[in-house]
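Journal club prep — side note

Before the paper discussion, L.F. wants everyone to see what a predicted structure for a comparable chain looks like in token form. Sequence:
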Amino acid sequence: MEIVLATRNKKKIEEIRRIIVGLPITILSLDNFPDCPETVEDRSTFEGNAVKKAVEVCRCAGKPALADDSGLEVDALGGAPGVYSARYAGGSGGGNDVRNYEKLLAELKDVPDDKRGAQFVCCMALAFPDGTVKTFLGYAKGCIGHEPKGKTGFGYDPVFLPKSCKRTFAEMTGEEKDKLSHRGKALEKLSEFLHSYLHL
């Protein structure tokens, strides 16, 4: 089975490949389909954006397509940055990671430790050419640290401490993060679905 990943984010592709290793699936990316247009993420929920991306890429590629939308919800900010996580500090794409988490830390400057709760949310959407769409949600609860730590991962990983952990996502190996991450949990549900779908 071939699945097109509706992303050009190499770190995201690596993460997904790691988690579905062992399944009889060939992962293709948007680089294999240069004619597919960039999806405008204009929905108000992670699920809405993920489904929109998956359906558009599926239509364009003519193959099952997997998209995700994920982001960070911070309690003290009323759930912000939410669906705007990737462009929180302005601009678009993953080139603004440092600016995004620096803006977040600045906004939480005077917020005490017990009020720095946050969660990462991930919705994966798998769209099939027959119009079927399946969605899988994953959450990673934790809190926001006071300064960035660690060199791995991407996005807000350097400032996010998963629950009962002393290290940020960016201080963990990929495999350690997969066990705790929102994307890892959503992909676990996807993997279970694919096992039954492929009769494994």
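L.F.'s comment for the group: The chain has one domain: 2-197. Keep this in mind when we get to the figures.
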